[in-house]
Amino acid sequence: MADELEHKFEVVIQEREGRQKLPDPVKEELKSSGMMDEKGKLKLKGVSPKMLKKMKQEFVDCPVLKEDIHFIQCFVCPNFQSRVMGKVLCKGDKL
């Protein structure tokens, strides 16, 4: 148990049909941190195009923001610890 990541929440990853639009503030954050190019194409290190396509259809009920958010928004959040068997390990810190 000692090597397990410290987290407050295990958030279930849910799926939606079709693509979801990322909110503009999230896009700006992704661009400023170099995870999205100027054309809005995501560039996540170590994530395959196939996985990225799947991630674009996923969302989580964020325990910190108390709303459904795009999985990509969750993935780049400082609270994101790990993705394990369809769940996100979340630190749960205030944003």
Name the poorly predicted regions: none
Number of helices: 3
Oligomeric state of the chains in view: single chain
Distance between the termini: 27 Å
String of helices and strands: EHHEEHEE
How many domains comprise the coordinates?
Answer: 1
Radius of gyration, CA atoms, in whole angstroms: 13 Å
| Shape label | globular
Average of the residue pLDDT scores: 90
Computed structural class: alpha+beta
Strand content: 25-35%
Number of DSSP strands? 5
| Main sheet summary | 5 strands, antiparallel
Percent helix: 10-25%
**Strand order across the biggest sheet?**
3-2-1-5-4
Structural summary, described in words:
It contains three helices and five strands. The chain is of the alpha+beta class and 95 residues long. The protein has one domain. A five-stranded antiparallel sheet has the order 3-2-1-5-4. The longest helix is centred in the first third of the chain and has 9 residues, at 24-32. It is globular. It starts with 8 loop residues before the first strand and ends in a 5-residue tail after the last strand.
Question: Nutshell version of this structure?
Answer:
The protein is of the alpha+beta class and 95 residues long.
What is this structure's SSE topology?
Elements: E1 9-15, H1 24-32, H2 49-55, E2 58-62, E3 67-70, H3 71-75, E4 80-84, E5 87-90
Keywords:
single chain; alpha+beta
